[in-house]
Queue: 2 jobs
Job 1
Amino acid sequence: AQRVEATGVQGSWTAGGHGYGKAYEFTGPYGHPMRLFFDVEKFVAEPGFESTYPDRPERRSSHAAAPRFLDHVTVASSDVRGFAKWYNEALGFRVMAFVDLDEAPITVFSVLTTNEKSHDLGVVLDTSSRAGRVNHIAFWVDATEDLLRTADVMMENGTAMEYGPSIHGVGEQNFLYFRDPSGLRVELNSGGYRNYVPDWEANTWKPSEGSNNFYKNGAMPHSMTESFPPAEGFTATEEGASPEMKEALLNPYAKQGRG
Ligand SMILES: [Fe+2]
């Protein structure tokens, strides 16, 4: 809380809520409501759902994806590098990678982490007037086969996949995107690197290097640029871009042969 307030952001303390104790709540400089807390109520499985593994809170689901844990959240911000800098300086996230457009020095994506994964917080560029939006939430599955099995189950049950399965260049995770019944984008991840380098210096990727789809054999659908809740106007492009630049800025991954 002291580190947050030292940056000029003012929050407030609460006594806690459902499942968590004393908390510090603030709105980040790019409009995202944040809550910091330490004490949590440990999850206890309902009778019949206990795992035979003593360290697991609940037995493995036998349904479709059967994710193991929440992997990351990717939010939207009007300034990707500013967002990364603030969360690095105030909350100690390591900045793991940036993506700049091929056509212009505009940063459209970054990944940050508090641990050995490539990211537990992502950020995409958002030039809408609506601050604090989310782009997707992602769950972890143990193996790529789990991800492919989920794709199979979704196809068999009439649920469209939005993008993937494929592999990100940034972070090297296998990915699959789809929408939940509310319309929110959900991702499944597996694989990826483990990075313990304390003074890691972020590479800046270009879409043409396969930042998003390292196989570079499938154009990203335009729907992937939507964040939530919806906003008016250009939401994935930089205001003031020249007309000839706007098509590329709207979806920099839309060209065949890019990733
Ligand atoms: Fe993601």
Job 2
Amino acid sequence: MQMNETCAVITGGASGLGEATARLFAASGAKVTLLDRDAARGEQVAAEIGGTFVETDVTSEESVQNALTKAVAAMGKINTAINCAGIGTAEKTLHKNGPHSLEHYQRIISVNLIGSFNVARLAAAEMAKNDPTEDGQRGVIINTASVAAFDGQKGQVAYGASKGGIVATSLPMARDLQREGIRVMAIAPGIFLTPMLMSLPEEVRAQLAQDVTNPKRLGDPSEYASLARFICECGYLNGEVIRIDGALRMQ
Ligand SMILES: NC(=O)c1ccc[n+]([C@@H]2O[C@H](COP(=O)([O-])OP(=O)(O)OC[C@H]3O[C@@H](n4cnc5c(N)ncnc54)[C@H](O)[C@@H]3O)[C@@H](O)[C@H]2O)c1
């Protein structure tokens, strides 16, 4: 799919990886609708890139359906859905105050895994209405996993499980949506310099960069965005997860 034919909804588009993707896609000629719960920041980014913003909670069926309806009204159709909304707070299975909070575990699974599925399934229903291309294609869904799906750290039991679920989603969802001509991919980022990471002290960031094999630096969100664009443009990628991590393998 060429960028000038792309009509993309991007969750988490108000910040970090989603924002960088929205900026690159818009600059490359795509139509973009941002879905995020952060209205102030989302409106600002959308205005800067000539896109549309809809305040959305990805965990809510009603909120996402409303956002997709508005996205279709603004762009004419949806043929790309990129899930970047996510949260990543840490807690150990057992710690000095007791066992991991069940509510906290459920919250992370709810936003990262169920929220991504909620957007993917409702976006697929919109994409299925599109006229097919010559080779029967109607759209692409990109979910965001993490290297924590493979090398989760202490305190990442909920986050790692949510991202493992994203990895395990790619193939069965690609098979489910074969008839409709919708591809499904996942990106597993290493450590990227987004607002979440920028809040860490400089020496912690430098240490994290030292752990990366090559190049010895944190990922730039524009590099995630480039991969998302490549996945859209390369029509033979489907049902897989791609790590983008400078060969980082965490202890
Ligand atoms: N930054 C990294 O190093 C890194 C590494 C691996 C994976 N990831 C994943 O990439 C994705 C984006 O991360 P980021 O670093 O850009 O984070 P970020 O915090 O900069 O952006 C996340 C965005 O998601 C939005 N959001 C959160 N909950 C939401 C909800 N319920 N409904 C709608 N929007 C919601 C936030 O408002 C925010 O704008 C996340 O899934 C994260 O787990 C990030």
